[in-house]
Amino acid sequence: MSTPAPFDFVVTGATVVSHDDRRQQDIAVRDGRIAAVGEQLATDGVRTVDATGLLLLPGLVDMHVHLREPGMTEKEDFASGTRAAAAGGVTTVVDMPNTKPPVATAERFRQKLDLVRDKAYVDFGLYGMLDHDNDAEIAGMAELGAMGFKLFMGQTTGDNRCPNDAAIFRGLEAAAAADLVVGVHAENDHLLRMFGDRLRASGRKDPRAHLEGRPAFVEVEAVTRIVTMATEAGTKLHIHHLSTAVGLQRVLDLRAQGHQVTIETLVAHLFLDDEAYATHGNLIKLNPPIRPAGDVEALWAGIARGDVDIIATDHAPHTAAEQAEQDVWKAYGGFIGVETMLPLLLTAAAAGKLTVEDIVRLCSYQPARRWKMADKGRIAAGFDADFVLVDPTAASVLDAATLHSKHNVSPYHGWPLEGAVLATYLRGQLIFEKGDVIGAPAGRQVVPVRAPHVIAQ
Ligand code: NCD
Ligand code: ZN
């Protein structure tokens, strides 16, 4: 009797990049997990994948996507959005709750799980919403595996109403009791509406009016208020898409005073500045807006210092017709990005703006740790075998027509790239190779590890 091979397959010769180093190593996979990492692993009788000359990264964890189910599937759905993720080396996405209807009750959370669970090509977590009156629903959503709760302090896509401060505080308390993160869209809604009304009354309709209607202090005010409240409520707080130099400085000041908060910057806020309004118009309308170059530089400096915790995409699809809307007040905020994040960041790495280790830290390791995804974000024995094979030297030009979203309109079309995603593996299964998404949807729900005393209640 022959003994069964100890591994399902071994990837040989790759340079394995982690959040803090890189080494040439083999990785062995068994039953969807990484079984061993080491130099020259025994491969007798075992299938091998030769990855000599390539980088092997843990699959990216994109903390901020809008896959539009339920209610807006003309823009994107779980199948198309997660196919795009697979093609972009993203093996886990966390989907936002600003759908129609919003995911703001346990019942809606359960319905959403039923709706999406068989359609996902990558693993997924779901956020619930922190609504204007739903603190009593937070525990129920937590029981169903909510990754955290999204709080929209400023108006954006969807039917959600921005909660007042009392409602926010009750929601923060409920999230703290559930030991889950609250992720916030930090813009002051009253001020946004006032500035928007003024600009509309003055007859402005051009794309730049969106930037002028959302000045930086609107972000600073919301950041200060929510950090103050979250500290008081004892809530784990994350600020999504922080976009300004002064907003970043305020976070640093608050941290210096002892407040604990993690921050995210978007790929879009790192790669586009306000000059892009002239070229792309309302396609790049985004909440918070694409900012002047000084803000973009400040965010890159924050990354270089280690002050930024996470990079995400805010993959926010709309139809091609909606993206072509000329009137800024009728246009939607957001555009696709889950498939272009890694190629753009690899290109930035080739230009020396950050390292590939930084990419792993910001887009995989830290999101997995912050949201307590026990099996994600590392290439180490016992972790899920989610990984990406990357050719760091492949030169190409980004062609939006090849993207996998329902509407593949991208401001990055035509951009030169250095570095390409060759293959993506999800729990040991090849799900993307050389331009094609492979196999049936095999994504599973990812749930966070919560403190035992919370779950026992
Ligand atoms: C997002 C969307 O369209 O869902 N839009 C955006 O401009 N960022 C919502 C959001 O994250 O605010
Ligand atoms: Zn937002």
From TrEMBL:
EC assignment: 3.5.2.5
Gene Ontology process terms (BP): allantoin catabolic process; purine nucleobase catabolic process
Family matches, as Pfam families: Amidohydro_1
InterPro entries, A to Z: Allantoinase (IPR017593), Amidohydro-rel (IPR006680), DHOase/Allantoinase_Hydrolase (IPR050138), Dihydroorotase_CS (IPR002195), Metal-dep_hydrolase_composite (IPR011059), Metal_Hydrolase (IPR032466)
Cofactor dependence: Zn(2+)
GO cellular component, as recorded: cytoplasm
Domain of life the protein comes from: Bacteria
Keywords: Hydrolase, Metal-binding, Zinc
A single MF term (Gene Ontology): cobalt ion binding
Signal peptide: none
Main enzyme class: hydrolase
Pathway it works in: Nitrogen metabolism; (S)-allantoin degradation; allantoate from (S)-allantoin: step 1/1
Domain Amidohydrolase-related, first and last residues per copy: 56-429
Keyword flag Ubl conjugation: no
Biological function: Catalyzes the reversible cyclization of carbamoyl aspartate to dihydroorotate.
Assembly and interaction partners: Homotetramer.
Family stated for the protein in its record: Belongs to the metallo-dependent hydrolases superfamily. Allantoinase family. Belongs to the metallo-dependent hydrolases superfamily. Hydantoinase/dihydropyrimidinase family.
NCBIfam families in alphabetical order: allantoinase, pyrC_multi
Name the UniProt record assigns to this protein: allantoinase
Source organism of the structure: Nocardia mangyaensis
